[in-house]
Design goal:
The chain is an alpha/beta fold. The chain has three domains: about 260 residues, Rossmann fold, CATH 3.40.50.1820; about 50 residues, no CATH class; about 70 residues, AhpD-like. It is built from 18 helices and eight strands. Helix 2 packs across helix 3 and helix 12 crosses helix 14.
Length: about 400
């Protein structure tokens, strides 16, 4: 079992994924362990080496006596990186893990390429809340609060639908050492970086859940305003955003981290995945069937550049990219491309009413003949899809 003995603890870790690739470190939240990140492995492991670990007091890591600090947790990470000869990494931290990420960015920025702060804040909760929580778990155990915590972690619909996942996280939470949990509660209680985060220079992506009670979107907005050039992504989740919005979360991380990291073949594979999702299997299969020595380089270029680099960016949702593309195809009078992207827009969640509004808007700014042609072209596609 891979255990690193640090100066003040013993940290359990797993190193997986693509050997010799850039490394992502995942840092878990209070009351979870490294299995918090199981849903990220399949999508990210083909591109990155992945280091997951159990924060001190959690999972299979040691449970030192007494209260912990975020500084101690951050130094655990640095010792782990040193032991594994990892000079510089990408870091993803959720909640308490996000606090550890902030500490690293402030105190060891040379060890980080980029930083993702998910469902976290520069300060979480009031000290009185954490003191009461510490007293409660030391008296009655972590299992006593498990059901209440799960209600804050996840939305009601997810709690109802994902029974097996809920069972797993309840077990992990309930089996967490009361001493370890209380020690980390103290670390969260005492961490306040509100006057410091403006000094973070590491490129940062902040992810906030619109239904998150523990670290609401306002906390994410504060981090975005304070950290220079930080990006903010909101997802329709409660506190465990990586669990409830797994697909969006994974894609956002790939988009944010992958710049200059993927080979052409990896970018092509990612682009082909997105191209099939947006344009549909039938369309892409037809295009691939027509590949020959004359057009193959161009088709590969489209897949890599358009679909692998632009359509995969997280700053705009795919549905918004579809709406923009429709408007541009109308302006440029590209009827065939317009028809293709009407179908793509439907695949991306754009409604018929929204397509109509785009065409109406184009009538003002692109001219009535362009809008008239777009209406005729859209009708053909929408009738074929049985939406008109």
């Amino acid at each position: 079992m891979p255990i690193l003995q640090t100066k003040s603890s013993a940290i359990y870790f797993q190193l997986e994924g693509k050997a010799n690739a850039p490394t992502i470190v995942f840092s878990n939240s209070l009351g979870t362990d490294l299995t918090l990140w199981d849903g990220q492995m399949a999508d990210l492991a083909p591109y990155f080496q992945i280091l997951r670990y159990d924060t001190r007091g959690h999972g299979k890591s040691a449970v030192p006596a007494g209260e912990y600090s975020i500084e101690q947790c951050g130094k655990d990470v640095l010792e782990l990186l040193d032991a594994l000869n990892l000079v510089r990494v990408y870091f993803v931290g959720l909640s308490m893990g996000g606090m550890i990420g902030q500490w690293l960015a402030l105190n060891a920025p040379n060890r980080l390429h980029k930083l993702v702060l998910s469902n976290t804040a520069a300060q979480i909760g009031h000290p009185d809340f954490w003191n009461a929580r510490i007293q409660l778990v030391l008296e009655k155990g972590v299992g006593f609060i498990a059901d209440a915590v799960l209600q804050r972690w996840l939305t009601p619909s997810f709690l109802t639908q994902e029974v097996e996942k809920i069972k797993h996280f309840k077990t992990v939470l309930s089996q967490t050492s009361a001493i370890g949990y209380a020690g980390c509660c103290a670390a969260v209680r005492d961490f306040d970086a509100r006057t410091k985060v403006a000094k973070i220079e590491v490129p940062t992506l902040i992810i906030s859940g619109t239904e998150d009670i523990a670290t609401p979107v306002e906390d994410g907005l504060f981090l975005k305003r304070q950290i220079p050039n930080a990006q903010l992504l909101t997802v329709p989740t409660a506190h465990l955003g990586n669990i409830e919005a797994e697909v969006i979360f994974n894609q956002a991380i790939i988009d944010f981290f992958k710049t200059n990291n993927l080979t052409q073949s990896e970018t092509h594979a990612q682009g082909m995945k997105v191209r099939r999702a947006v344009l549909g299997e039938v369309h892409v299969n037809k295009a691939n069937f027509k590949l020959n020595t004359f057009n193959a380089d161009f088709q590969h270029f489209i897949t890599r550049y358009a679909w692998g680099e632009i359509w995969t960016r997280s700053e705009l949702p795919r549905r918004d990219r579809s709406l923009i593309t429709l408007a541009m195809m109308i302006a440029l009078n590209r009827e065939d491309e317009f028809k293709m992207h009407v179908k793509a827009a439907i695949n991306n969640g754009v409604t018929v009413a929204e397509i109509k509004e785009v065409i109406l808007q184009s009538g003002i700014y692109c001219g009535l003949p362009a809008a008239n042609g777009a209406y005729h072209a859209a009708e053909i596609v929408l009738k074929d899809l049985k939406l008109l």
